[in-house]
Amino acid sequence: MLAKYIVLFGYFAVLFGIGYFAAGKVKDIKDYYVGGKGLGFWVVAFSSRATGSSAWALLGLTGMGAVFGVYAYWVALGTLAGVAISWFVMSKPFKRLTDQFDSITVPDFLESRFQSGGHLLRGVAATALSLFVMIYVSAQIDATGTAFETFLAWDYFTGAIFGFLVVVAYMSFGGFVAVAWSDVFQGTIMVSGLVLLPFVFFSTVDSPTDVINGLRSIDPTLLSIWGAEGFGWLSVTKITGFLMIGLGYLGSPQLFVRYMSIRSTDEIDRGKWVSVSLTFLMNFSAVTIGILGRYYFTTAGDDPVEVLGNGGQNVLILLVESLLPGILGGLYIAAVLAAIMSTIDSLLVLASSAVARDFYQKILHPDIQDSQLSGFSRKVTLFLALGALLLALTVALVSPSRTIFWFVIFGWSGIAATFCPMIILALFWKSYNSAGALASMISGFVCTPLFKFVFPSIPTYGVYFANVAELFPSFIIALLAGYIATRASIKKR
Q: CA 76 to CA 78: how far, in whole Å?
């Protein structure tokens, strides 16, 4: 146990050092929110992957591998495709336009792109962003408590509060610079931990064939790419839902703000290969770890939820505890915390920009200069962090059976359905206007909870909506709403 604490002390010391160093680099609001638009491709690629992976990959995705077997690789494939399209197709047009408009937030970009009078577009975007980011951040704080509870036998609430305090301390002063550089450090830990653990596991077995035969004896459907139901409409709809998780990479502000921060479009050409490679290594390794854990810890007839925790989300932790000595186990605690904290810090800076920049400065007090906003932004960051902490602790008390994967996915889907269709149309359809953008955002925002909580309860057909999940149908409706509203407003002129 002492070895684990030594490793964690070193990990936190590096984070605080990054925050201290970054604080000296923050001179104005552009530095605080987009790193002065001067970051290199390595930093941006690692930062985007660390932010996009979070506890969802290390705890949620490994748990899916444990519960579903090779069926969960569809999620890894969908996320890989989404990251590739984002970097290869969308990043350069977005970078050029945001540089042209001198945007430092996504609502900045929207107001300039559509030349909209008033601030309705900015206000709707900032409101949606703030709400779903709070849900997303609370899910990560929840994962922090779970990690401390499982690895170190801390009280859940103590762990959640401690992790929250660490993140707020190092990033509130250094802003986006601290976030980006800490993501490089944390992303390195994450990808190393995920890639190395399967090799450690296979060093303990005689042959990979033993694992395959063992999985077949536990449950033959673990080796089926179609899942337990076999090929049919149920499995197809669920596979669609898994693949469409990748849609969230096509315009989510917490990821696209990285394209704003990169030094130039030339850096994007280098960064895209780094980001796609990291995505492949991390997500496919995560599913593999879950499958190996299912083989290692269960036998035929076992309920994986009972053995491996709710949603199987303790499988990574249990494997680490079983296979690795104390100091290496401490590194994996750091990897899990890195996944969580790299997302919390990024999202808090994003939500802070929506409140401080888009509401307070641009709508309520347009006379305030950028140079006067840095101090207020730090206070807003702290206030939003406290709100997310309160939400996480409340959900933990009310819903003890929640899983990290689906808690995160709801926040992820809300942000994606609200912003991604609108960003796609804004980049690639010149006729797209403010009326269409509003229709896209509002419909995506409203449809997410409807497809999450209402449509799955419909008799007979509800199971299909539950399988396909909320993001894909909300995304399609937001695209159609944007197209229809744009065409309608053009005809009126």
A: 5
**For the chain, how big is the Rg over CA atoms in Å?**
22
* 3-class state of residue 180 by DSSP: helix
Q: Is 206 helix (H, G, I), strand (E, B) or coil?
A: coil
Q: Phi and psi at residue 39, in whole multiples of 5°?
A: -85, 150
The answer to whether the CB of 413 falls within 8 A of the CB of 248 is yes
Residues present in the chain in total: 493
Question: How far is 91 from 98, CA to CA, in rounded Å?
Answer: 11
pTM: 0.86
Two structure tokens written together for 458: 């419909």
Whether the CB-CB separation of 354 and 130 falls below 8 Å is answered with: yes
What CATH superfamily classification does 2-492 receive?
Sodium/glucose cotransporter (1.20.1730.10)
Q: What is the pLDDT of residues 406-444, one digit of tens each?
A: 667 777 888 899 999 999 999 999 999 999 999 999 999
For residue 245, the number of C-alpha atoms closer than 13 Å in the C-beta half-sphere is: 28
Query: What confidence tens digit (pLDDT) does each residue in 206-250 have?
Result: 889 999 999 999 999 999 999 888 888 889 999 999 999 899 899
Average pLDDT over residues 277-305: 93
